[in-house]
Amino acid sequence: MDSCAPNNFGASQKLVALAQQLRQYKPPPIPFDDDNKEQKLEESAGKLVSQLGFAESVTPVAQQPPERFRPKRAAVLICLFEGDSGEFRVILTKRSSKLSTHSGEVSLPGGKADEADANDAETATREAKEEIGLDPSLVNVVTCLEPFLSKHLLRVIPVIGILSNKKDFNPSPNAAEVEAVFDAPLEMFLKDENRRSEEREWMGEKYLIHFFDYEMNDEKYQIWGLTAGVLIRAASIVYQKPPAFLEQNPKTKVPRVVKKDTKMP
């Protein structure tokens, strides 16, 4: 069974149309680096990874034998619903300040894959239930995006799901992991408003990390890094247009061998 196979569900006409559109989505083909004959990749073997917040489709990686680095798998849920004004909105979380990694940062619900997970959709929805109490039966998965690589070198699969009725979801955040649950308009990640970027370098390649400032119910949030990169990509697909700013996606290789504490800048 396809890990991101769509389900039939009852929703507004706008959400139904979006689901139909996303079911047709096909991740872009993986490019090859003609200058490096070693970069002959088996896409189906999962040997492609990307930069922080950048999709694998823009990042060729050398084929890696078993003893060399292979990122662990994870999944995040891009849960979309229709706002009061008819706009598409996405559910986000602010991570607990007590966590050892990414504490206090904004993220999408999700986490590392368990051996018992049947597919990426199950990983994403299971983690969403554990983190914010979102019942998987309320979420209708319609597609998956190409993988991203997190700062700590996790291979992250974004899973897009649709919440037919936001009123059916009553957030119950796990206090050990989540400090707050909120939502934001998806289209904001295509606009050059309340946004800034910083240039970073990884293995000799320069790239941009994007930061979006957002305020809701008198609370201020900053959405950046992997989460921002995933949402820029998701918004581009949903609205079928590029962002109004330069993304600057690098094309580079991930180290074949990494140390335990290796991470991107």
Keywords:
265 residues, eight-stranded mixed sheet, 3 helices, 15% helix, three-stranded antiparallel sheet, globular, alpha+beta
Radius of gyration based on Cα positions: 18 Å
Order of helix and strand elements from N to C terminus:
HEEEEHEEEEEEEH
Number of helices: 3
Number of DSSP strands? 11
* Shape category: globular
Mind describing the biggest β-sheet? Answer: 8 strands, mixed
Which percent range describes the beta-strand content?
25-35%
Terminal residue distance: 37 Å
Q: Structural class, from secondary structure content?
A: alpha+beta
Provide the residue-averaged pLDDT: 81
Determine the fraction of residues in helical runs and give it as a percent range. 10-25%
**Low-confidence segments:** 31-51, 60-64
Write up this protein.
The chain is an alpha+beta fold and 265 residues long. The radius of gyration is 18 Å and the shape is globular. It is built from three helices and eleven strands, in the order H-E-E-E-E-H-E-E-E-E-E-E-E-H. A hairpin with a 4-residue loop joins strand 6 and strand 7.
Present the secondary structure layout.
Elements: H1 13-23, E1 72-82, E2 88-95, E3 106-107, E4 110-112, H2 120-132, E5 139-144, E6 148-149, E7 154-163, E8 178-185, E9 195-202, E10 205-216, E11 219-224, H3 225-239
Parallel strand pairs: 1-7
Antiparallel strand pairs: 1-2, 1-4, 2-3, 2-8, 5-7, 6-7, 9-10, 10-11
